[in-house]
Amino acid sequence: MHFIERNSEGQIVRVEPTPFPESTERSDETTAEIGEWLRINTLHQLQQSDLDMVRVLEDLIEVLMSKGVISITDLPPAAQNKLLSRAQARQTLGGLEDLIGEEEDRLI
Description:
By secondary structure, this protein is an alpha+beta fold. The chain has 2 helices and 3 strands. It has one domain.
């Protein structure tokens, strides 16, 4: 059983196995349209998980280096460059945090 929500153009925006308030229809079968939506949604979930795991691995490498377990020079040059580039980007963004005020609508 699939419970489905569609937008105003009739496109599927959500599919769940249990009822939810915004569902507009239900289907006992996995139609081609539902199957495609589920496939794309699963792909998006995997892509987000990949991004989350990159951050976990980056933090793990940083911890291992700070404890002296590994050195950045133990990594291949391409990995070193990527880690240094990301560290610079994060440092730059960290410096921009002071520009964001308490008020939500004020950026600078």
